From TrEMBL:
<dbReference type="Pfam" id="PF01381">
    <property type="entry name" value="HTH_3"/>
</dbReference>
<protein>
    <submittedName>
        <fullName>Helix-turn-helix transcriptional regulator</fullName>
    </submittedName>
</protein>
<feature type="domain" description="HTH cro/C1-type">
    <location>
        <begin position="13"/>
        <end position="67"/>
    </location>
</feature>
<dbReference type="InterPro" id="IPR050807">
    <property type="entry name" value="TransReg_Diox_bact_type"/>
</dbReference>
<dbReference type="GO" id="GO:0005829">
    <property type="term" value="C:cytosol"/>
</dbReference>
<dbReference type="InterPro" id="IPR010982">
    <property type="entry name" value="Lambda_DNA-bd_dom_sf"/>
</dbReference>
<dbReference type="GO" id="GO:0003677">
    <property type="term" value="F:DNA binding"/>
</dbReference>
<dbReference type="InterPro" id="IPR001387">
    <property type="entry name" value="Cro/C1-type_HTH"/>
</dbReference>
<dbReference type="GO" id="GO:0003700">
    <property type="term" value="F:DNA-binding transcription factor activity"/>
</dbReference>
<keyword id="KW-0238">DNA-binding</keyword>
Length: 111
């Protein structure tokens, strides 16, 4: 296991949010948190609960281990396809819409 310093969480949260091209308000909305809380977490003023870490990881599509400093890199943490880690949040949303449409079409055609 990696040894992390006190501010690793905030730095990793900021890096993941920037990589996904989200501002603090967008991340807060996706994670079900207040925007001010994101700012506090990123600056190391507050420590998130386990539930908040999970919500943030899910909203950012990274592993909790990455945010907590247990894995060295965000890349490949939760990606399913080559290059997925380079996609913006909007790109991911568009792909999810396509997946949902394909799933619905398949369900309608299956007896």
């Amino acid at each position: 296991m990696m040894v992390s310093n006190e501010n690793d969480f905030g730095e990793r949260l900021t890096a993941a949010r920037d990589k996904r091209e989200m501002n603090q308000a967008e991340l807060a909305k996706r994670a079900g948190l207040q925007a001010a809380a994101i700012g506090h977490f990123e600056r190391g003023r507050r420590k998130p609960s386990f539930a908040n870490v999970r919500a943030l990881a899910k909203a950012l599509n990274v592993s909790s281990d990455y945010l907590l400093g247990r894995t060295p890199s965000m890349e490949g943490a939760t990606t399913a396809f080559r290059g997925e880690d380079d996609l913006s949040s909007a790109d991911r949303d568009q792909i999810q819409l396509m997946i949902d449409m394909m799933r619905e079409r398949r369900e309608r055609s299956d007896p």
